[in-house]
Every structure is written in C-alpha cells, then in structure tokens.
Amino acid sequence: MMQFSAVVRELRKWLTSFAVVNVVLPFAQYTLFGGLGLLFLYELLLKILPYSSYDTIDLLFTTIPLYAIGYFAFFSGIWLTLISPRIRELPIALWGYAFVILFPFEGLTLLLIVRAVIYILAGWALFRYTTAVGAGREGNPYSG
C-alpha cells in the first residue's frame, strides 16, 4: 500500500502541474458519476423503450455523442478522483461500472463477465487502499 501511495502522490504532483487539471479537479465527482449515469441511462433506455423510439435514442447518444461523452467523462473522472481527496468514492464508481457492463443481464458472455470482474477487483483493491490510508496505517497523503 505504501508503494501505491507513493505512485498516487507522484501522479497527483504531475497531473496538478497542468493548469486544466487544477480547473476541473473540483468537478471530479460530477464527471465520474455523471459519466456513469449517462452510460447507465443509455442501457436503461435501450431496455425499457420500445423499438419505435430507437431513432431518438440513436440521435441523442450517437449523433449527439452523449454515449462517448459519458464514457470519456467516466474515465477522466477516474483519474481526477484518484488524485483528489475524495478517493473513497472511487471504488463505488468502479463497482457501478461493473453493474453497467452487466446491466441487461441477458446474453452474458465470458468477455462481459471478465470485464466486470476486473472492475470489481480494482474497486476492491482501491477500497482496501482507502481503508488502510483512512485508518492512518500507511500514512495519509491527503491529510490536511
């Protein structure tokens, strides 16, 4: 855990050297969970709306690239949350993304299951890291 703390500390120094990161860092949680919400909304709308409304969904999420915006917002939110003081919410987002991967729970393939397991394990590892750092056992790089 100490090595990962050092990596996070150096990553934070490097990323905050860019001015744009300092501007968007307060919005890390919004980009993380907003992107996750857009991805889930897309899957949910595909599941519950009738086929006749597919043109509208296609317009919103493909022509106006809301799906791509949600995807990139989620993954940029991961990096921003990793260097922010609110790192404790990152495992929840990773577990939520695993849920979005599996959401319709139909046509589960080995690829989907492996992708979900990777995010679940990453969330579990980050949860262990945040609890160790939060308890003060490893030295909290974000104590203020």
From TrEMBL:
Lineage: superkingdom: Bacteria
Membrane-crossing segments per the record: 20-42, 62-82, 94-127
Organism from which the protein derives: Cohnella zeiphila
Protein's recorded name: Uncharacterized protein
Keywords: Membrane, Transmembrane, Transmembrane helix
